[in-house]
Design goal:
Layout (H helix, E strand, L loop, with lengths): L9 H32 L18 H4 L59 H15 L25 H16 L11 E8 L12 E7 L5 H11 L6 E5 L2 E3 L13 E8 H15 L15 E4 L8 E4 L17 E3 L1 H5 L20 E6 L7 E5 L5 H12 L8 H9 L14 H10 L4 E4 L2 E3 L14 E6 L2
Parallel strand pairs: 1-5, 9-13
Antiparallel strand pairs: 1-2, 3-4, 3-5, 6-7, 8-10, 9-10, 11-12, 11-13
Organism: Dendrothele bispora (strain CBS 962.96)
InterPro entries: EF_Hand_1_Ca_BS
Protein name: Rad60/SUMO-like domain-containing protein
Length: about 475
């Protein structure tokens, strides 16, 4: 049963209908905006359909409009990989203010360019420049003689040493306290060393300087190497020292080199030492010059009592020319100690004449238990070892001894025709005694004796190698 409202007329109902329509229109607009926002951010779960969805073969970026992009057709060489991307709808993304547009930048990214380093400056050029600066500034490079004596003090570490090392430390400490620093006692334990600095031949302003040092006989030369390196302004490892043409190292002591009073060393750097050795080896392989022999050139001759008149060997002077010997000893040249020390700065004179030079020569340093100094010989690879031993005996002064007369006579008779010998003694016992006293010296290379009839070139030796003479 309905009750009719008679208070409202037709106009009133028209106004009410109009208000309802406006209210419904506003609600529809609000619902439309909310559905758009939800579709972009988060979708409400929907009821799953029972039917199977059809799978599309298209990729995601082609099925979804959010992933659509305009890709460049070809990648140009002038632009980088990021310059060909163009992102659309940047403002619609949630983080639009944090993204940058890459399509506008056409400049390539700057990359670091590597520069080839310059070549290393040679050491002699650096030394030459230093000397020029010192000369321009007027600085005199003088250093005082360093004190090479260091005190050996025992501390708490002695208790942690081995018994042998602890005993050696106590012995060394007692020796140091026996002769305190500054006292005049014990002068025989000191040796005087004069070091001559050899500059590089290509260094224009290089000068030879001589410095004198004093050190103990029992100390090694490590402190001396450090002092010379400090004076030359180079590293201690780059210092090379030689004594009579033989190189020695910082771990050696004066007693090992048989230095009891004084000695003179030649010091240089490794670059100069290698350069001088290379020049000396190159000069030893050069053919001799054909300059005429002057009348002022003199040489010494050491004769041996034998049956051959040609049995002699020439000892060259500082500027002398070689002579021609008749036997195999002409292949051997004797060089004195001073010449052996300076062989690196001047080319040695060859012992061969131009018509006899048939191959390269090289130097050998001979040492024995009966000689105090080493003897340097220049030989050819075809020289017999017996001729080298014979030349060694002549230079050492053993040629006039009776115990080597048989060896020298056999070496002389091997290269010449035999001549009548003296009559033997009638006493058989005396002849047996003389024969038993004869000695046959030989060369010893790496602990192995070499026959006197063997050529020295078969022993695989190099220039400057040291061999021993045994059997003396």
């Amino acid at each position: 049963m309905f009750i009719r409202n008679k208070t409202r007329d037709k106009d009133t109902w028209a106004k009410l209908h109009k208000l309802d329509k406006e209210k419904e229109a506003r609600s529809r607009a609000v619902v439309a905006e909310s559905t758009d926002d939800d579709s972009e951010t988060e979708q409400t779960p929907r009821r799953k359909s029972k039917g199977k969805e059809k799978k599309s073969n298209l990729p995601v970026w082609e099925r979804n409009e959010k992933f659509k992009r305009y890709l460049s057709q070809d990648k140009s060489s002038d632009e980088d990989s990021d310059g060909s991307l163009d992102i659309k709808d940047v403002d619609k993304t949630p983080h639009a203010n944090l993204k940058r547009k890459r399509g506008d930048s056409k400049k390539p990214r700057s990359r670091s360019r590597s520069i080839t380093p310059p070549p290393q400056v040679p050491l002699h050029q650096l030394q030459n420049a230093r000397n020029i600066v010192r000369k321009a500034l007027g600085v005199s490079h003088t250093t005082s003689t360093p004190e090479l004596d260091d005190d050996f003090r025992l501390d708490e570490t002695q208790n942690r040493l081995d018994p042998e090392l602890a005993a050696y430390a106590r012995k060394h400490a007692s020796k140091q306290h026996a002769y305190p620093r500054g006292s005049s006692s014990g002068p025989e334990d000191k040796v005087t060393v004069r070091v001559r600095w050899q500059p590089h031949p290509k260094e224009l302003t290089g000068k030879q300087t001589i410095t004198e040092f004093r050190l103990d006989k029992n100390d090694d030369f490590s402190a001396l190497f450090d002092a010379v390196a400090e004076e030359a302004e180079i590293l201690p490892d780059s210092v090379v020292m030689t004594l009579r043409g033989n190189r020695f190292f910082p771990s050696v002591t004066p007693e090992a080199l048989n230095i009891w009073d004084q000695a003179e060393f030649v010091a240089c750097d490794k670059t100069t030492y290698d350069y001088l050795r290379k020049e000396s080896r190159f000069a030893s392989q050069q053919p001799p010059s054909n300059k005429p022999t002057s009348s002022s050139n003199t040489w010494k001759q050491a004769h041996v009592e034998s049956d051959d008149d040609d049995d002699e060997i020439v000892v060259l002077g500082s500027d002398g020319e070689p002579s021609n010997a008749g036997d195999e000893s002409s292949d051997v040249e004797l060089i004195s100690e001073n010449e052996a020390l300076n062989t690196s700065t001047a080319a040695p004179a060859s012992s061969l004449t131009p018509d006899q030079d048939d191959g390269p020569t090289f130097k050998l340093v001979l040492r024995s238990g009966k000689t105090q100094n080493d003897i340097t010989l220049t030989v050819r690879p075809t020289t017999k070892c017996g001729a080298i031993v014979k030349a060694f005996l002549k230079k050492a002064g053993f040629a006039d001894k009776d115990e080597y007369a048989g060896f020298l006579q056999d070496a002389a008779s091997s290269g010449a025709a035999p001549k009548p010998k003296k009559k033997p003694r009638k006493n058989a016992r005396g002849a047996a005694t003389v024969a038993s006293d004869q000695k046959i010296p030989t060369l010893c290379v790496d602990g192995d004796k070499v026959g006197n009839d063997t050529e020295i070139g078969d022993q695989d030796l190099e220039d400057g190698d040291m061999i021993e003479v045994v059997g003396l």
